[in-house]
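Review form for a predicted model. The reviewer records the input and the model, then writes brief findings.
Reviewer: anonymous (R2)
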Amino acid sequence: MEPTGSSVTEPTGSSVTEPTGSSVTGPSGAAVVDRRRMVALAGHADDEITARSGLADPDASVRATALGALARLGALADDDVATYLADPAPGVRRRASELAASRPSVAIGELLHDPDDSVVEMTAWSLGERGERAAVAALSALAAVESGHRDPLCREAAVAALGAIGDPAGLPAVLAALEDKPAVRRRAAVALAAFDGPPVEAALHRCLEDRDWQVRQVAEDLLAVE
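Model under review:
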C-alpha cells in the first residue's frame, strides 16, 4: 500500500488474487482446479448461475473465486460479501474483505481481530480504501509498536490505512510507528504526507537521520530536501 492521503492502491503483503485453502494434487485436486476454472470463466462469460454455484463449493478456493467472478459480473450483493466474511476458510474471508473495500455498508471492522494475520492485513487495507474514519481508533491500536498486532505486516497495513484516511486522530499512532521495524517506519514516513503541522515536520526531520535509507529518502522527498 502506498497511501498518499487519499487512497490505498494495494495491500502491503502477499497478493490475494489467487485464492488458497486447498491442495490441488491428485484426482480430487484436478477436479477442484476444473471447478475453479469453470467458475472463473463464468465471470467473463456473463454466466451468473455458474459463478454463483461456486459459493456453495466444498473447496475454499472455489468459493473465493466465485466471489470474484460475481463481482466481475456486477452480481455480487452486499449480503453475499457479509456472509462470506464469516467463512471458515481464511482465504475466503480475506477475499470477501478485499471486495468489501468498495462496499462501505458492509461492516468489516471485527475482522481486525481475525485469528488469521492475512485477513487482518487485508481488512486494514480495505478500511483505508474506504476512508473509514470510524476505524481510526481500532487501526491505531493495531499499529501500536508494543501492544499492537504481533505481525509487522499487519502493523504496517494499519499505518498505511491511517495515512490513507488522513484523520488527525490517527496521527499519534503514525508518529509512534516511526519507532517500529524498518518496513513499518517507511510506511509511517509515507503516511505523514496526509498530515501537517509542526509535529509532522519535526518527525520528518528526525526521519532524515533514520538508519534505513528508504525512510530517509521519503523524508527528503516530503521535505523537498536538495
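Findings: The radius of gyration is 19 Å.
Further findings: The longest helix spans residues 26-42.
Recommendation: see findings above.
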